[in-house]
Design brief:
Layout lengths: L3 H20 L6 H8 L4 H4 L2 H30 L3
């Protein structure tokens, strides 16, 4: 098994990145972000389908983190 602190850092990353990607495309932060670096493709980034795809990726990342958290907790409980 990986070192405990490294695994916890990974789980924290999954939670933070998943929540960010799930919520930001639908918040007021998304248009300024889309405007800043990608003016030519701004209409595409503001499309609902693209926002939904980014949110879906965030949900998948949260799901992966949750499954890994369950496995991590089971590994801590089981005798080695």
């Amino acid at each position: 098994m990986k070192p405990t602190w490294l695994h916890l850092l990974y789980l924290l990353y999954c939670a933070e990145a998943g929540v960010y990607l799930l919520l930001v495309p639908w918040s007021g932060l998304w248009p300024p972000v889309a405007l800043r670096w990608a003016e030519p493709i701004r209409p595409l980034l503001l499309a609902g389908a693209v926002r939904g795809a980014v949110s879906a990726f965030g949900f998948v990342l949260l799901l992966v983190g949750f499954v890994d958290l369950v496995r991590f907790c089971r590994a801590l409980r089981s005798p080695s």
